[in-house]
């Protein structure tokens, strides 16, 4: 049989120690990778421990993102529905005294009882003396209470912004590490065959994909929650304005903004 020069060179190369080392490194890859089964689990098992750690961190970030999504979506939906009901109910109330009486049927942590309590507490602390300074103090307390309610509802969405901005770079770190391992494998095996390069490239791209999976929903959900919080803030501002309008109307019409027991207590204290 006649053997050409190229075939002879190829056969001779099989006995080269460097080529044999490269073949050995290829055979040491997991069976899932060697058989072409580049499933997510197969790529994870074949990845470098550093890349595996990156993937685990990104998966935990994704889990945290969806946990925050479920919790904050429920809280925001309930708060928006509740404040709309309170606005409809307040639009039919003619005076602050009646508003205070009916607000007692709401839970003490709801917006309406908290805001009404701010008004009545300031009037009580002012000994029932109603002047321009009292109006300014009540307006300040209502604004402060509204800010506290908004911050309470806003609490918890900060990690979404962090995950959305950091996760792609964490995935990029895994990508760089996987590509670096591919070049190290090429240098060690002195072989540029696809079997040597593919596992490292696959784990690098897989880390990038997991980073995007963690980052994209976090950014989208963060923007959605911000828009929802802006709507809630506008509705809460309307509620504050309606309550302050009731207070000023009662003052202009000479109505009592305190109940009889509070008024008698203040009057008795003033006579002492």
Question: What descriptors fit this protein?
Answer:
11 helices, disordered C terminus, mainly alpha
Layout of secondary structure:
Blueprint: H1 5-14, H2 17-27, H3 31-34, H4 40-46, H5 49-90, H6 96-103, H7 111-125, H8 132-154, H9 158-189, H10 194-252, H11 260-271
Helix pairs in contact: 2-9, 4-10, 5-9, 5-10, 6-7, 7-8, 7-10, 8-10, 9-10
How far is it from the N-terminal to the C-terminal residue, by CA?
A: 127 Å
Rg measurement, Å:
34 Å
The overall average pLDDT, rounded, is 77
Let me know the number of strands.
0
Structural domains: how many: 1
Structural class, from secondary structure content? Answer: mainly alpha
The geometry reads as rod-shaped
For the biggest sheet, the summary is: none
Give the proportion of residues in helices: over 70%
How many DSSP helices?
Answer: 11
* Element pattern in H and E: HHHHHHHHHHH
Question: Low-confidence parts, pLDDT < 50 over ≥5 residues?
Answer: 5-14, 18-36, 260-272
What would your notes on this structure say?
This protein has helices at residues 5-14, 17-27, 31-34, 40-46, 49-90, 96-103, 111-125, 132-154, 158-189, 194-252, 260-271. It has 272 residues and is mainly α. Helix 6 (96-103) packs across helix 7 (111-125). It starts with a helix and ends with a helix.
Structure, briefly:
The chain is mainly alpha-helical and about 270 residues long.
């Amino acid at each position: 049989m006649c053997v050409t020069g190229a075939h002879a060179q190829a056969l001779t190369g099989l006995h080269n120690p460097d080529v044999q080392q490269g073949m050995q490194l290829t055979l040491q890859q997991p069976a899932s990778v060697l058989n072409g089964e580049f499933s997510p689990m197969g790529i994870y098992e074949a990845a470098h421990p550093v890349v595996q750690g990156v993937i685990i961190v990104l998966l935990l970030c994704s889990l945290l993102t969806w946990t925050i999504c479920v919790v904050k979506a429920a809280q925001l939906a309930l708060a928006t529905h509740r404040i709309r009901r309170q606005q409809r109910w307040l639009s039919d109330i003619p005076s602050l005294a009646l508003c205070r009486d009916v607000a007692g049927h709401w839970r003490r942590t709801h917006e309406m009882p908290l805001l009404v309590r701010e008004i009545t507490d300031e009037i009580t602390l002012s000994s029932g003396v109603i002047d321009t300074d009292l109006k300014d103090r009540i307006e300040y307390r209502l604004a402060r209470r509204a800010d506290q309610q908004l911050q309470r509802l806003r609490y918890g969405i900060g990690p979404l912004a962090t995950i959305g901005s950091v996760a792609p770079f964490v995935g990029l770190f895994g990508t760089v590490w996987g590509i670096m391992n591919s070049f190290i494998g090429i240098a060690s095996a002195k072989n540029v065959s696809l079997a040597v390069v593919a596992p490292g490239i696959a784990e690098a791209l897989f880390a990038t994909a997991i980073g995007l999976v963690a980052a994209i929903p976090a950014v989208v959900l963060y923007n959605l929650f911000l828009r929802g919080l802006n709507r809630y803030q506008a509705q809460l501002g309307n509620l504050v304005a309606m309550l302050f309008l009731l207070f000023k109307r009662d003052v202009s019409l000479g109505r009592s903004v305190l109940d009889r027991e509070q008024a008698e207590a203040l009057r008795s204290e003033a006579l002492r």
